[in-house]
UniProtKB/TrEMBL annotation:
The chain crosses the membrane at residues 46-66, 78-98, 127-149, 202-219, 240-258, 264-282, 309-331, 343-362, 369-388, 394-412. It is found in: Cell membrane. Keywords: Cell inner membrane, Cell membrane, Membrane, Sugar transport, Transmembrane, Transmembrane helix, Transport. GO terms for molecular function: transmembrane transporter activity. The keyword Phosphoprotein does not apply. Part of the binding-protein-dependent transport system for D-xylose. Probably responsible for the translocation of the substrate across the membrane. The lineage of its organism: Bacteria, Bacillati, Actinomycetota, Actinomycetes, Kitasatosporales. GO terms for cellular component: plasma membrane. This is Xylose transport system permease protein XylH. It is a multi-pass membrane protein.
Length: 422
């Protein structure tokens, strides 16, 4: 009687385990990064490439037509005008990451501006306190929206649609019969949009460019050191130097351009600070990872122990707070709070900015830098069309076409990633 013996395969005879090509990118040098870039494009992971190319194309077209688009004063005005809708768009990014929508942000912006202007100009409150009260009221309203959505189960679309009507009514009630409240002349609120750091002192723009580049380089080096110590693939020094060099070129060029006009606008500084802080929260904190997890799959996030209700409520609080801050910049820009502030295309431009910048409408993918890139696209188009005296009706149609193109690109990319099992 013979006995069959089953021999277990040795390590040498075993088939080699499949290795994720993304783990080999940094070991292969430049060729590895080119292969990784091609793989991302093939899988529909386009990132910010279409937006950056779009900005370059927009600048080239309008500069060729007008000859004035790239002048320092025009670019400075663009950096001022993007703060209001851009800050609202940052809040939109948070909501979209959950795969939801907030239709009340325009009304919240208008109501918050009305509260701040009314308290400071009519009631005589300190302007800082008036603005803080307006921001706190907006955050409380956001918590109310989130409560009805997360706890009661009312769809976010319905809750925020009701909010759009209710807070628009609150805005008109606060403003009263006159319908307009002028902000305090040369006060804090009035200077939000018009103030330049150092009254045109060139050191501020140069300092921000150098400091931002230095902090980025330090962060990259620290991250590489930690990954190396943990035995993980890390960016080589050559890539870090290249990335830092590109950022330095962009930052220093922007600083030089701003200094050709009036220097560094306070509005731009606040907007950039908000984008950087919120980006850090989303990418570097457990709270941010929980937002992505909930947006990627509610049931999976719940089974992983995430407090889904709290994440949803807190996200609507953040979006409402960002809308209120954006509303204050709108009031500063026009010198008053009125019944039409926050109406018109404010909400649509903010949503469009987030989507055009690369945030997915389907949840789980995006970053707050999308708000900056997207609002730059929208404001550049608007400013360029103003320079060639195109009517507002045509501007709406062009902006709508750009938004549709961004959504189509997002849908196609999502379908391609599904096909690639990502």
């Amino acid at each position: 009687m013979t006995t069959e013996q089953t021999t277990a395969p040795t390590v040498e005879n075993a088939a080699p385990a499949a290795v994720d090509p993304r783990l080999l990118v940094r070991e292969a040098g430049l060729a590895g990064y080119l292969a990784e870039f091609k793989r991302k494009l093939k899988n529909g992971d386009l990132g910010s490439v279409p937006v950056v190319l779009g900005l370059i194309l927009i600048g080239a077209i309008f500069q060729g037509i007008t000859g004035d688009f790239l002048k320092a004063d025009n670019l400075t005005h663009i950096t001022q005008w993007i703060a209001g809708p851009g800050l609202i768009a940052v809040g939109v990014v948070f909501v979209l990451l959950l795969g939801e929508i907030d239709l009340s942000l325009g009304s919240l912006a208008g109501a918050s501006a009305a509260i701040a202007a009314n308290l400071s100009a009519r009631a005589g409150y300190n302007e800082w306190l008036s603005c803080l009260i307006a921001l706190a009221a907006a955050v409380a309203i956001g918590a109310l929206h989130g409560f009805f959505f997360a706890k009661i189960g009312v769809p976010a679309f319905v809750v925020t649609l009701a909010g759009l009507l209710a807070w628009s009514g609150l805005q008109q009630y606060v403003l009263g019969d006159k319908g307009t409240v002028n902000v305090v002349h040369d006060g804090f609120l009035a200077n939000l949009d018009s103030y330049f750091l150092g009254d045109g002192d060139i050191a501020y723009a140069w300092g921000l460019a150098v400091l931002g580049t230095a902090l980025y380089a330090a962060g990259q080096l620290l991250d590489a050191r930690r990954r190396t110590a943990a035995g993980l693939a890390a960016r080589p020094m050559g890539e870090i130097a290249l990335r830092t060099g590109v950022l330095a070129a962009v930052a220093l060029t922007a600083a030089y351009t701003l200094n050709q006009d009036s220097g560094l606008p306070l509005a731009l500084l606040v907007f950039l600070a908000v984008v950087v802080v919120t980006d850090f929260v989303l990418r570097r904190t457990s709270y941010g990872r929980q937002i992505f997890a909930v947006g990627g799959g509610v049931e999976a996030a719940r089974r992983a122990g995430i407090n889904v209700a709290w994440i949803r409520i807190s996200v609507f609080m953040i979006s409402a707070g960002m809308a209120a801050l954006g509303g204050l910049f709108y009031a500063s820009q026009q010198g008053s709070a009125d019944k039409i502030l926050g109406g018109g295309n404010v909400l649509m431009n903010s949503i469009a900015a987030a989507v055009i910048g690369g945030t997915s409408l389907f949840g789980g993918r995006g970053k707050t830098w999308s708000a900056l890139l997207g609002i730059l696209v929208i404001q550049s188009i608007t400013t360029g069309l103003d320079l060639v005296h195109v009517s507002q009706a045509i501007q709406y149609m062009i902006t709508g076409a750009v938004l549709l193109a961004a959504v189509v690109l997002d849908s196609v990319s999502r379908r391609t990633r599904k096909t690639a099992a990502r």
